[in-house]
Amino acid sequence: MPATHGRTGRPPVTSRPEILAAARRLIDADGWEKVTVRRLAAELGIGATTLYHHVRDKDELLVLVLSEYARQVPLPVLPEDPRERIVVAATTIRQALAGWPWAAAEFTTDGLLGRLGGPAVQLVEVIVGAAVECGCTPERAVHVFRSLWYYTVGEILVRIRSRARPPVVFAPADTPHLSAIGERWPALAAQDTYEMGLRALISGLLPE
Amino acid sequence: MPATHGRTGRPPVTSRPEILAAARRLIDADGWEKVTVRRLAAELGIGATTLYHHVRDKDELLVLVLSEYARQVPLPVLPEDPRERIVVAATTIRQALAGWPWAAAEFTTDGLLGRLGGPAVQLVEVIVGAAVECGCTPERAVHVFRSLWYYTVGEILVRIRSRARPPVVFAPADTPHLSAIGERWPALAAQDTYEMGLRALISGLLPE
DNA sequence: TCGACTTTCGGAACATGTTCCGAAAATAGC
DNA sequence: GCTATTTTCGGAACATGTTCCGAAAGTCGA
C-alpha cells in the first residue's frame, strides 16, 4: 500500500516548516550570518537546490525564520495616560529612526503603532515616505532595507538568548565629521542629547 | 635606460586613481550594481586579483567611487532667517531619517549640518545614537548601513545624470500593516501627513 | 655582470547564491 | 500490468567576491 498524500507526483522529501526549523537550529548554533544554502541542505539531508522548490531565495528564507524570532519580542505595555502613550510612541519611532524604514515600520506597526494611531501613525508615515521621496523605488528600497531587517532581528535574537546588552561604543573614526562637531560643542553630553532629542520628538507629537 | 619610478620592486601596472576612473566609466555605462571585480579588471586590462593590491575589497572601492559622485551634489543654499534655516535642517534630517544613519549623517553633516549647529546637530546625534542604542555595534552597523549608502548615492547619481525624479509609487503589498492603518485613517492625505510631520520635527527643534 | 632582494602580478582555487534540465518517484487512466 | 502525466529531486554548471602562492619584473650592492 503506497503512502498516499492526496495528490499526484513524486512526494516531497521535506516541507517548509521543516526547513524553517532546521534553519533555526543552525541560527541557534552559529548565528544567522553563518547560514548558507548548502549547510542548511546538509542539515536536512537533501540537495542544496531542492531548497529552491520550497522558498524563492535565501532572502525569503531568512525573512521567514527571523520573523519567528521577532514575534518572541515582548511588546511594551501601553500606559493609560495619553501623554505616556506618546512617550512609548516616540520610543517606537526612535527605533524606526535607527534604520528600519519599511520592514521595521511594519514590524513595529503590527504590535504597537496600530494601537496608538493619530499623530504617531502620521509621523511614522512621514518617516517611511521620506525614503521614497528621497528617490527610492519601493522594490529596491525593500531589498536594501532587508539587510537592516536581518541585522536588527539578529540583534533582537542575541538579546533574547543572552539577555545582555551589547557594549555601546562609538568609534570616532567611523564618524569623523560628527566627531568634529562634537568637539566644537563639547557641552553636548550623551544623556542631555538623548533627552533633548526625545523631548523634541515628544513635543512635536503632542497637541498644542 | 630603464624607466625608473623612484623605488624598488616590480612597477605597478595601474594605480588607484586609474582604477577609480575605470569604475566610474562602468558606472556611467551600466550603473553601480553591474560593477563586478572581473569586469572592472577587464576594463583595465589587468587580472582580477590585481585589484586587491590597490583596494582592500569591493566595499572600499565602491565607497571611494560613489563618494566622488556624492561630492557633485550641490548643497542647498542656507537662508538668512534662522527659522528658515531650521526648515533646511529639518529637511536634511528627514533625509537622514530616510535611512542614512551613519554614512549619510556624515555626508550631510559635512556640507550642511556643521554650519547649522545647535539643536539640529543634537537631533542628528540622537538619530545616530539610536542605532547604537538599539543594539548595534558600530562595526556591524557600518557594514550594514553601507548598502544603504551605496543605494542612496546610486540614486543621487541617477538624478545627476538624468535630472529626472524616479516615479514615487507605494506598493501596498510591501507595507500591509501601514496600508491597513491607512485604510482605518483615510483622512490622512499625503500632503497633510507631510506637512504635519515636518511641522512636528520643526516645532521640536525650535526653542520655546 | 650577476646574484639578492623587494614589490607587484595574476592564474588557480574556493565558498556562496542561483539556474538549468534531465532523472526519479509517485498517481491516474486504460 | 503498463503507459502517460505530474510533481519533486538534485547534480552540473555559472557568476561573483576573495585568498593563496608562485612567477615576473624591477632595483641595489658587490
From TrEMBL, chains A, B:
Keyword Mitochondrion: no
Gene Ontology molecular function, alphabetical: DNA-binding transcription factor activity; transcription cis-regulatory region binding
Keyword line: DNA-binding, Repressor, Transcription, Transcription regulation
SUPFAM superfamilies associated with the record: Homeodomain-like, Tetracyclin repressor-like, C-terminal domain
Record's keyword annotation contains Hydrolase: no
Record-annotated DNA-binding residue ranges: 36-55
Regions crossing the membrane: none
Location of the HTH tetR-type domain: 13-73
Matches recorded under PROSITE patterns: HTH_TETR_2
GO biological process: negative regulation of DNA-templated transcription; response to antibiotic
InterPro entries per record: Homeodomain-like_sf, HTH-type_TetR-like_transc_reg, HTH_TetR, Repressor_TetR_C, Tet_transcr_reg_TetR, Tet_transcr_reg_TetR-rel_C_sf
Cited Pfam families: TetR_C_1, TetR_N
Alphabetized PANTHER family for the sequence: HTH-TYPE TRANSCRIPTIONAL REGULATOR BETI, HTH-TYPE TRANSCRIPTIONAL REGULATOR RUTR
Protein name according to UniProt: TetR family transcriptional regulator
Organism: Actinoplanes cyaneus
Biological classification of the source: Bacteria, Bacillati, Actinomycetota, Actinomycetes, Micromonosporales
